[in-house]
Amino acid sequence: MISVKKVNNRPLNFLERIYLPEIVRGIAVTARHFFTNLLRPGNILTVRYPEQTIPLPGAANQRTRHRLKLRADGSPKCVACFMCQTACPAYCIHIEAAEYAENSVEKYPAVFDIDLSRCVVCGMCVEACPEDAIAMDTKEIPGGALTRRDMLLTKEDLLRNLPGEPSLLGASNRLANEYLEGKK
Amino acid sequence: MPKITIDGKTLEVAKGTSVLEAAQLLGVYIPRYCYHPKLSVSGNCRMCLVEVEKAPKLLTACSTEAADGMVVRTDSDKVKTARRDVLEFLLINHPLDCPICDQAGECGLQDYYMDYSRAKSRFAAEDKVRRQKRRVLGPHLVLDNERCILCTRCVRFCSEVTKTSELDVMERADHSYIDLKEGRSLDNNYTLNIADICPVGAWTSRDFRFKSRVWFLKKAPVACLGCATGCLAEAHHNENVIYRLLPRPNAETNTWLCDRGRMTYKAVQAGDRLAKGVIKNGLIDLEPALREAATRIDEAKAAVGVLGSPWLSVEDNAALALLAAGMKTANFCFDFKFETGIADGILVNKDPSPNAAGAARVKAVRGGLELQAFAAKVASGEIKTVLAEARAAGLIKDALKTSGARLITFATNKGDIPAGAYATLPYASYFETAGTFVNYQGFERRLEPVVAAPEGVKPFWAVVNKLGAYSGVLLRLDSADDAMRGLEKK
Ligand code: SF4
Ligand code: SF4
Ligand code: SF4
Ligand code: SF4
Ligand code: FES
User: Fold this and answer.
1) Distance (Å, rounded) from C-alpha B64 to C-alpha B403?
2) Which residue, of A13, A162, B88, B374, is most buried by count of CB atoms within 10 Å of its CB?
């Protein structure tokens, strides 16, 4: 069943119906901002994103552009288990798995695309990942783009990482780091 | 006959039936790892423990014979605890591999853990026993000894079904592991069944490795067209790509599927798949190829020979029969006599073609030449142009060679085209179009399309229909079923 919500709008009163006073009110708001910006630029509300950012309020901080975390040797922690792709409600993750010839982790993503034009920024992919390999903590808010291609994050885009990473969490990751240590 | 009561339900079973099988008949599922209906009972995994009245301890349902008056409980607290504890034992040393394990999603450990345990591990991941991982054994399999739960299904399969006994349990107690016997290689024709029966991800398929997660796959019933046995199978596919063939066990024909049969799906997606016509060696669009073929047929007039094929469905053979009738030629043949019977004692048939019996149905109605007579006519030059499916053309290749008759052939893959073919027309494989096949026992297999054919590629009967139209024979075929007119009495 489709749920229906009836909206009972208040009827317009006389002053609203003749429009003129409302137009004047609108112009007043515009004028107020214009003069604030002109005379006291410190009080401007708009920021020049992305050059300029402000701290994000509340939980918005926890869900920003995705990234794939790295291991100590710079390889992606992701083992192409497809959990995120399975959990994603927007079907915007596309993974193609491949096999390492040597590494004991065996599996890695040859292709890892996230189509941001479809992503609903729900964070399910992060929740689903058993390897702690994907995160949405870059604090970058994916914005508009001129082409669809610009909205597609490829593996290379996703591997752009935060300073001070490689993490040791995740089962396969533990094996991989042990393996790397053994090789040294 | 013993009368047994399981969870309050009573049933009379044949003597020798195990408690597990009796429960199955009653619709009570008892979890199991080492039990397999087609292998001998081993009773080593202890997953099937049940409570039997008057027995002091829990008994393994798979190895306990149902006795008269036996009262069994599978849902008591004692049984539930036992199941949880057995799983805990199995998981102590099990690696945390699910993210990279192809079995995930159809794994006995995962499923039973969710159904019967859900307990938190009391053992540290660091203390797990390490074993050899990722060993490529044989052309089709990878073995991961860490994931093995030592149920010995694989060992029993090799000694009881293929009787090749390549595998064995090495060492003893908690040092045990599965390995190849010394100097052996795992290259019998049934190895992929081991990956199927292994209840965990210890044996996995090299072909399917990392290609897809199993929960994305959709299942479609098909039959294997690798030989006349016509095993029932299941094609696992997703987004128009077939990923693997698995057996569909049935009482009549097969429990297993041979490795060669399992690989038959690969031709559908192979690089040499024909999407266009071929004239001599050059690719050409379908329409001009059809016109060219039709011109050559017109040239030859009554000296045209039509050869059916045991690799084509009944419908498509019938379409060829209709074409031969339309062209008013007496030179046609639907007679393929192969020796049939199981060649290796398991599944592979002596007859390499899937539908000789189906072609015989067309012959029964339409008559026509015997294969030898047809070949003789080709060799003597009486038949100047031969219309034949690629693999069937291979059956008369000597005759074609001696006379140099012009061969117009139908093929799905470039590699199938016989040497010296004049024109080749592409058609959709039986993963892409419907068709009926008859196996050596006379069982009919109706195949439905699983994936879409490459663009522009049509079913065989449609190609025949067009070829007919271009050479002035109107067959008016709109579907495979229309072609069945070829099986009506003239
Ligand atoms: S945030 Fe949500 S929609 Fe976006 S990729 Fe992750 S799971 Fe999919
Ligand atoms: S869930 Fe994590 S490990 Fe699995 S494919 Fe996604 S990012 Fe990779
Ligand atoms: S065998 Fe089963 S439990 Fe073990 S790693 Fe594979 S999927 Fe996971
Ligand atoms: S490899 Fe698989 S089938 Fe063989 S004993 Fe181990 S778990 Fe059983
Ligand atoms: S199934 Fe009965 S002991 Fe394994």
Assistant:
1) 69
2) B374
* Separation of CA A121 and ligand 1 centre (Å): 5
Q: How far apart, in whole angstroms, are the C-alpha atoms of residue B139 and residue B195?
A: 13
Are B378 and B447 in a shared domain?
yes
Residue among A75, A77, A105, A107 with most chain B CBs within 10 A, to mutate? A107
Contact A175, A104 (CB under 8 A): yes
What is the count of residue pairs from A and B with beta carbons less than 8 Å apart?
42
Q: How far apart are CA A35 and CA B415, in angstroms?
A: 79
- Contacts of residue A39, Cβ cutoff 8 Å, sequence gap at least 6: none
What six digits make up the tokens of A169? 């969490």
Domain range for B381: 277-489
Interface touch A81/B100, C-beta < 8 Å: yes
The fold of the A58-183 domain, in CATH, is Alpha-Beta Plaits (3.30.70)
- Would you say residue B250 lies in a domain? no
Q: Write the DSSP assignment of A14-58 as a string of letters.
A: HHHHT-HHHHHHHHHHHHHHHHHHHH-GGG-----TTTS--PPPG
**Is residue A51 pLDDT above 90, yes or no?**
no
Q: Are B65 and B171 in contact (CB under 8 A)?
A: no
Rounded to two decimals, the ipTM of the complex is 0.87
Widest Cα–Cα separation across chain B = 88
Q: How many Å apart are CA B390 and CA B308, to the nearest integer?
A: 10
Count the Cβ atoms, other than its own, within 10 Å of residue A15.
10
Question: What's the CA gap between B333 and B315, in Å, rounded?
Answer: 15
Of B154, B156, B171, best ligand 4 pocket probe by most atoms within 8 Å of the beta carbon? B154
Same domain, B104 and B166: yes
| pTM for this entry | 0.88
Alpha-carbon distance B358 to B335, whole Å? 10
Separation in Å, CA A10 to CA A7, A15, A16, A23, B74: 9, 14, 12, 19, 66
B98 touches chain A (CB under 8 A): yes
User: Does residue B124 sit at the A interface (CB-CB below 8 Å)?
Assistant: no
pLDDT digits (tens, 9 = 90+) for B286-340: 999 999 999 999 988 789 999 999 999 999 999 999 999 999 999 999 999 999 9
CB of B248 closer than 8 Å to CB of B232? yes
